[in-house]
Design brief:
The protein has 311 residues and is mostly helical. The protein is 73% helix and 0% strand. The chain has one domain: MetI-like fold (Orthogonal Bundle). It starts with a helix and ends in a 6-residue tail after the last helix.
């Protein structure tokens, strides 16, 4: 009996689409290398500003020192170590990208699921609002939104909590960037939900009396999660790029805080006909460019891995 039991074939674990997707991602070498690079950047952004021996060091004798063994990225106009400031700025930029993508995720997924599931006149009105917002120049809309909100919010902050002004400005930046980045997410999710709501498993749940909330979050949302993850990875670099541009214009992160965009703006301000302090632009610009490139490679790998045509 024991021999028969030992000779019986073992039950195989079903090969789900998720398992196949992760195996395809593991074979996508650029995506894996990009993920490792992003993990390294995140680790440096968290650790370097705290453990660097030059975190608070500055002085006129260190002004505009070129890169060397002591200051890997050189020093700036105030004698501060650029290497430390770059990864402190990367921490802010990654935070803005992650929070902005999170705002886009929540608004876009909820908007798209409701519009696609309900359909009819509500779907038409909700998509017309998306079309109207699409017709506005996004960067101009963000600038107007941030400056308008800041004008009204600053009065309350100055009167009641002046120390919170930098935090409130950053929150307004998150809100402004999230307000324009959810539109494509809503359209993608709506299109997927329009297809899924007529599938047999959704119709069966409806016939069994399942609530709309249960159907949306138990049956439909897991089936759109793959494409949502892909688009989030493509939204993060777009938001970081928006933030860098706004900071370059002086509308983003304000001193004493710094992002990669503000560091590039500070480096550009030091350009003069007599001498170009190249490391002030090249170092933060290279970190920003490589981070955006890695995020895009990771997004491409996730898109290929979770492509439903491959399942």
């Amino acid at each position: 009996m024991s021999e028969a039991a030992s000779s019986a074939p073992t039950a195989k674990v079903p090969d789900s689409p998720g398992r196949r997707a992760w195996r395809r991602l593991a074979r996508h070498r650029p995506a894996i290398v990009s993920a490792a690079f992003l993990a390294l950047i995140l680790l440096l952004a968290l650790v370097v500003p705290w453990v660097s021996p030059h975190a608070a060091a500055q002085g006129s004798d260190l002004q505009f020192s070129p890169p060397d063994g002591s200051h890997w990225f050189g020093t700036d106009v105030h004698g501060r170590d650029v290497f430390t400031r770059v990864f402190a700025g990367a921490r802010i930029s990654l935070l803005v990208g992650a929070v902005g993508a999170g705002v886009s995720l929540v608004i876009g997924v909820c908007w798209g699921m409701i519009a696609g599931y309900v359909g009819g006149r509500l779907d038409g009105w909700m998509m017309r609002i998306v079309d109207i917002l699409y017709s506005l120049p996004s960067i101009v809309f963000v600038i107007v939104l941030i400056t308008t909100l800041e004008t009204y919010v600053k009065r309350w902050v100055v009167d009641w909590a002046p120390g919170l002004a930098p935090t409130v400005r950053m929150l307004l930046l998150f809100a402004g960037l999230g307000a324009v980045s959810w539109l494509t997410m809503a359209r993608i999710v709506r299109g997927q939900v329009l297809t899924l709501r007529t599938r047999p498993f959704v119709l069966a749940s409806q016939s069994l009396g399942a609530s709309h909330r249960r159907i949306l979050f138990r049956h439909i949302l897991p089936n759109v999660l793959g494409i949502v993850i892909v688009y989030v990875t493509l939204t993060v670099p777009a938001i970081i790029l928006y933030e860098s541009f706004l900071s370059y214009l002086g509308l983003g992160i304000q001193p004493p805080e710094a992002s990669l965009g503000t560091l590039i703006a500070e480096g550009a301000a030091q350009i003069n006909p007599l001498r170009v302090f190249w490391w002030l632009i090249v170092c933060p610009g290279a970190v920003l460019a490589l981070t955006l490139l890695a995020l895009n490679f990771l997004g491409d790998g996730l898109r290929d891995a979770f492509d439903p045509r491959e399942n």
